[in-house]
Design brief:
2 domains; Rossmann fold; globular; 13 helices; alpha/beta; four-stranded parallel sheet
Length: about 325
């Protein structure tokens, strides 16, 4: 049974298939979308609130011909006495796929191990692979000129600023290796990538393609993409004052953007906090593609589910 828990769960040829499908779904939306999930019901378990993730998966399942069931943390017994083993086995008797947005990555892995349905990681504290695939597709749209999307990513430089140990940074460590991109992470030394993501990268078999620096200008020089994320994620509210203070030098400003290539893109997975991790002029400037990213969540996630659905039918 195939799952999508981390970027490297897909081989390069599968990632290429996802991108090609996403482009096809986007171009054909409203006219023709193959009913890849026809006759299937997919459940969405969300322990963390969401806007883009919830809506894009719900709409995507509908557009692929399937039926979505949304379950928040108050709708099910998981975590309130029922084991993950029991939950996975029961849901496997009811639904064809499971989309999970939660805190502990280990919980997601156990659901995948114990059940008999594809599981999609819609975000954990460790990784956010749907976002990384969406980001890569959004970049490739700008660079491929209608050609091979995966090929257009090779050798491109991404500069990432802020908390370089969070789930987006972790996902880009895996994603950059998979897509053969150069990744430079810039942040405070105490927020450098941790051992867990380095272990995952080593186990993936992909060569590391990232470096860490505490110098934001060094990271930004000649970058093809300047990327940032919120400094205070869900569950970190008590640390907000400390985080904001230490992250200030890593705010993406117009001056920092000028160090990138003239054609450099600005990206943020949203929600964004203007005047903190990014200047408003950058967030809504000509180089920003934040709303392309948001839209492409729909098309890329549809493609991921369509690829996984093949294992259900098999």
């Amino acid at each position: 049974m195939a799952h999508f828990l981390k970027e490297t769960d897909f081989a390069p040829h599968q990632a290429s298939e996802v991108f090609a499908l996403a482009r096809s779904f986007k171009q054909g939306r409203g006219r023709h979308t193959p009913p890849s999930l026809k006759g299937q019901t997919w459940a969405m378990i969300f322990s963390k609130s969401s806007t883009r993730t919830r809506v894009s998966f719900d709409v995507g399942i509908h557009e692929l011909g399937g039926h979505p069931i949304f379950l928040n943390k108050n709708d099910i017994q998981l975590g309130r006495g029922e084991s993950i083993y029991d939950t996975a086995n029961v849901l496997s008797r009811f639904v064809h796929g499971l989309i999970v947005r939660t805190y502990e990555h280990s919980e997601l892995e156990e659901l995948a191990q114990k059940g008999t349905m594809p599981v999609v990681n819609a975000l954990t504290d460790l990784l956010h692979p749907c976002q990384t695939f969406t980001d890569a597709f959004s970049m490739a749209e700008k660079w491929s000129n209608g050609g091979d999307l995966m090929e257009s990513l090779k050798g491109k430089k991404i500069a990432y600023f802020g908390d370089t140990a969070n789930n987006i940074a972790n996902s880009w460590i895996l994603g950059a290796a998979l897509f053969q991109m150069e990744l430079v992470l810039a942040g405070p030394p105490d927020y450098a990538p941790g051992d867990e993501i380095q272990d995952l990268l080593q186990k993936s078999g992909h060569a590391p393609s990232y470096q860490f620096t505490s110098d934001p200008e060094e990271a930004a020089r000649n970058a093809d993409v300047l990327y940032t994320d919120t400094w205070v994620s869900m569950g970190q509210e008590e640390e907000s004052a400390e985080r904001i203070e230490v992250m200030k030098p890593y705010s993406v400003t117009e001056d920092l953007m000028k160090l990138g290539k003239p054609s450099a893109l600005f990206m943020h997975d949203l929600p964004a906090y203007k005047g903190m991790e990014v200047q408003e002029e950058v967030l809504y400037g000509d180089q920003s593609i934040i709303f392309d990213q948001a839209e492409n969540r729909l098309h890329t996630q549809k493609a991921i589910m369509a690829v996984l659905a093949q294992s259900v039918k098999a």
